[in-house]
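Problem: given the chain below (273 residues), write out its structure.
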Amino acid sequence: MTFARNSLIRDMTFRTNFLLETVSSASWTLMNAGFYLLVFHHTPYIGPETGWGKFEFFVFLATSWFINSLVQAFLMPNAQEFSELIRTGNLDFALLKPIDTQFLISFQRVEWSSLVNVLSGLVLLSISLWQLTTRPDDPLVLSAASIVLYPFYILCGVGILYSLMISLAATSIWLGRNQSLYNFWFYITNFARYPMEIYQRGWGMPLWTVFTFVIPVLVVVNVPARLLAQPLAPRAWWEWPLAGFAIVATLTSLAVSRWVFQQALQGYRSASS
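Solution.
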């Protein structure tokens, strides 16, 4: 809470910049939604027999906005700054503070302007669920389990992305300055932007296997969006096992990232060495 308050004070010191960043984030979501509105003007589904129609996919898109907004607000600014702490030697001061170093490095800065996408996601999610639950043919019936599990799996998705990000950032200790963090992050997470069914055929199967079970970015958005939108009727047998795997993947990812971070710190020699 102290970190969040200090970050808000900093942002309010430069209010015009904060406003421009907020407008920029909101504009990106509007353009993103406009692109998919154009796509669904030409086709009723994202892939044949996938169940991802227009409003089912917009639930998926809103879920993606929730997760990415939380990551960009709370995690990405700190991961980007980690390499600078190493290069300038300011990591020494973080190590001397009476607080867990990984916690301090991960959450000391909050980009409040990025949270505007949470509001955009709420609007899109509300509209999409209204359309799905009130349609005349086969209306969606939301279960209590889906509603409760949805925010839980959003947090699981954030945990998986955080694990990947802090592991990439930790490599800066070995590499000196990891300028490729943003690029590699974009390449990997780009696979999570679409329903996993589009990879489950032909040469896409190796991608589906790697990014589901090795680097589990495909479960980040797919699991919570699938639980809420229920694109397949009847439900596929593998959906609940996939939901269980997402919990295992989250706990494993967090444990591995913690180990990578601790191993990287052991290789740090401080600015004076």
